[in-house]
Write a structure and sequence with these properties.
The complex is a heterodimer.
Chain A lengths: L1 E10 L2 E11 L4 E6 L5 H8 L7 E6 L2 E2 L5 H4 L2 E4 L10 H8 L8 H11 L12 H14 L4 E5 L7 H14 L5 E5 L3 H4 L5 E6 L2 E7 H7 E5 L8 E3 L2 E5 L10 H10 L1 H9 L1
Parallel strand pairs in A: 3-8, 3-9, 6-7, 7-8
Antiparallel strand pairs in A: 1-2, 1-4, 4-5, 9-10, 11-13, 12-13
Chain B lengths: L8 H14 L12 H8 L3 H13 L3 E4 L3 E4 L3 H27 L4 H12 L1
Antiparallel strand pairs in B: 1-2
Helix pairs in contact in B: 1-3, 2-3
Classes of the chains: A alpha/beta, B mainly alpha.
């Protein structure tokens, strides 16, 4: 789905990525985690071709992002963290922008609008951030794009909408589609993810499926027996030596990887 | 849906499903919700529901009809009942016995309390 090969990118003098290579398979819901300023949004902008790498190549659906072909954009939808919308209603917005997406479903957009309770005859520029985000999520999911990128999608959403949004993501998952969600609100979304990417010090320090993480690491109570790889409060991560099932604690994993990058990379790559 | 942090989600989903089987919300030889429908309902990744269904399938609690969907096995309720009874005996009862021991509660005392509970 997404292939980065030796990608370097910098803003005037400030280098963000150097020699970054990774692959993101199709059919996954990937959480993109990282502290502020680590390049999450830059990475998303590189994927959509809004930013062009100084070196290396980026392929999305086997198309080079520098080509910026309509064919590529028909299958990508990006909901940024902050955005402004034109001074028109959602109904007019759909009429104007849906034709760019050959697989756009008017039936599904109506369904999402009803579920998220978005007003269709209110001007988008008069809406609150949460309302605008819901409008764009409803539109974006209806495009049926096979790559959906969401930057902090739960920001500004009320409790009910967050829950509906999670149901929408669960519904969208299929073998051909990848959904990348950049977020700090791990607890809003962790049960949807089947893959985790972590950016730290401008490097991708983790790009791993949750199945692999579960296989290699065991999350439990720090007071239990056995060697602890990392612990915080009452929680601990150990090596999963007995092939047992446990529930990934993403927050703990994030802190663990930031603190002990080399150690965890070693275990996860084994 | 809110899940706890102590157990893998698919195990928690299995427990929700077992309740449905024991309460006869799901009925023998009737079709059960698709993986996608249940994933939407519980707001989880469909792979997680799939994992629970695979377990149920290998335990012969559910069966698959190619191209149609999953069905509840005829003896699903009996199997689930026995499984849970056994699990209670193996993991919950020892804890109860340990407490009875600590508080020196005799069997006759326990019988008395239990007969009161039943009425």
């Amino acid at each position: 789905m997404i292939n980065f090969t030796n990608v370097s990118f910098k803003y005037s003098k400030k280098s963000v990525f150097e020699n970054l290579s990774f692959e993101l398979p199709k059919g996954s819901v990937c959480g993109l985690l990282g502290e502020n300023g680590e390049g999450k949004t830059t990475l998303l902008n590189l994927i959509i071709g809004a930013l062009i790498p100084k070196e290396g190549s980026i392929l999305v659906n086997n198309l080079n992002t520098t080509s910026r072909l309509a064919e590529m954009y028909q299958n990508i939808y990006y909901v940024p963290e902050e955005f402004t919308l034109p001074a028109i209603t959602l109904t007019k917005f759909i009429k104007a922008y849906a034709p760019f997406y050959p697989n756009f479903s008017h039936e599904r957009v109506a369904d999402y609008i009803a579920r998220l309770r978005v007003e269709t005859n209110k001007r988008l520029d008069k809406m609150s951030m949460g309302e605008r985000r819901k409008a764009l999520l409803a539109f974006g999911f209806a495009t049926s794009a096979n790559l959906i990128l969401l930057d902090e999608p739960t920001n500004g959403l009320d409790i009910t909408s967050k829950s509906i949004f999670r149901g929408m993501v669960a519904e969208m998952v299929n073998e051909e589609r990848t959904i990348v969600i950049s977020t700090h609100q791990i607890r809003d979304l962790d049960i949807l993810l089947d893959r985790v990417m972590i950016l730290d010090q401008h490097d991708l320090v983790l790009n791993c499926s949750t199945a692999e993480i579960e296989k290699k690491l065991y999350f439990d109570n720090r007071y239990n027996m056995g060697k602890v790889l990392y612990s915080s409060g009452a929680f601990a991560i150990r090596e999963n030596l007995n092939a047992e099932d446990s529930m990934i604690n993403l927050e703990l994993l994030f802190n663990a990887i930031i603190a002990k990058k080399v150690e965890f990379k070693d275990i996860l790559n084994r | 849906m809110i899940f706890n942090n102590n157990q893998p989600i698919y195990i928690q989903i299995l427990e929700l499903i077992n309740d449905k089987i024991l309460n006869e919300e799901w009925i023998a030889d009737e079709r059960i919700p698709s993986v996608r429908d249940l994933a939407m309902k519980y707001e989880v990744n469909p792979n997680t529901v799939m994992r629970a269904y695979e377990r149920l399938q290998s335990d012969e609690i559910i069966y698959k009809r190619r191209g149609i969907g999953y069905y509840l096995s005829p003896d699903a309720r009996d199997k689930t009942f026995l499984y849970y009874k056994n699990e209670f005996i193996c993991s919950e009862l020892p804890k109860l016995f340990a407490k009875l021991n600590t508080f020196s509660i005799t069997m006759s005392e326990l019988e008395e309390i239990y007969s009161k509970f039943k009425t």
